[in-house]
Write a structure and sequence with these properties.
Layout lengths: L2 H16 L11 H17 L4 H19 L5 H17 L5
Helix pairs in contact: 2-3, 2-4
Length: 96
């Protein structure tokens, strides 16, 4: 996506390796990134601001569980998955 996230992905690989695990370098799809940013915005405005990062963390956990349940799922489908939940949160707060 950009140099910061490329380097961050390698940092996760290196940290896992130091713990004896080999993981593939995580990458961030631009569509998924946009939906995560929007999800964080909604969480920050509908709950407490500090909930935004935790909301995105849970989105990542849920996305990986969906990927495990549906092998071969594409990034566009993951973005739509996040979008669906974000839109539900937005409907719960009038005027957002």
């Amino acid at each position: 996506m950009n140099p910061f996230f490329d380097a961050l992905g390698q940092n996760w690989v290196d940290a896992a390796q130091r713990r004896g695990a080999a993981i593939t370098k995580p990458a961030l799809d631009s569509r998924v990134a946009l939906e995560l940013l929007e999800l964080a915005r909604v969480a920050a405005h509908t709950q407490e601001r500090r909930f935004a990062p935790l909301t995105c963390y849970l989105a990542g956990v849920a996305a990986e569980r969906l990927r495990a349940a549906e092998p071969g799922i594409d990034e566009a489908t993951l973005a739509e998955f996040i979008l669906e939940v974000r839109q539900r949160l937005e409907r719960e707060v009038p005027g957002l």
